[in-house]
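Quick one: Acetyltransferase (GNAT) family protein from Micromonospora narathiwatensis, structure tokens please.
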Amino acid sequence: MLENLRLRHYTAEQAEELVDQLVDVYLDAHAEDGSLYNAERYRRQLTMHMPRAGWELVAATVGGKLVGYTYGFSLTPDTRWWDGIQEPIPAGFTEEDGRRTFAVSELVVRRRWQRRGVARDLHAELISGRGEERATLLVRPDNTAARNAYHTWGWQSVTSLRPAWDHAPTFMVLTKALDAISPIGTD
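--- reply ---
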């Protein structure tokens, strides 16, 4: 971990005061990725995600300034997370009960702070204390840096998924068992 990096957990209610900063970091991290990553769409996403059961955010700051964050939530039986999943998938793969799967929705770091271990530390901090059996996330196949990082961190590719929203890309679906997670520094 960077010497002056601070990680802090937030509930949805606590994170309300950070929304403008979250959008700014998101836009900075995706500045070169085109029209899919815009403030209006991302604010809508946050508005839909923050009320979900088990929602949690971990923010990274340096000198009091937000440099990155990650968040996710538990998948409930009525989740739409798996809408657009591509066959074949293992039997029962998309069955959720609110305690089985934690979905990591975002992991973003300002461009200036990328490739310094911030994403790794955020990732480990978010999922290390979870009580679910597994975690899942979606990653674009062309995002080689993220794919390589997730592979290094023990994630496995299962299939692909294409959400129903306009101009949605096809994502790789990754999963990771959470029983093998240990907090930072306990390896």
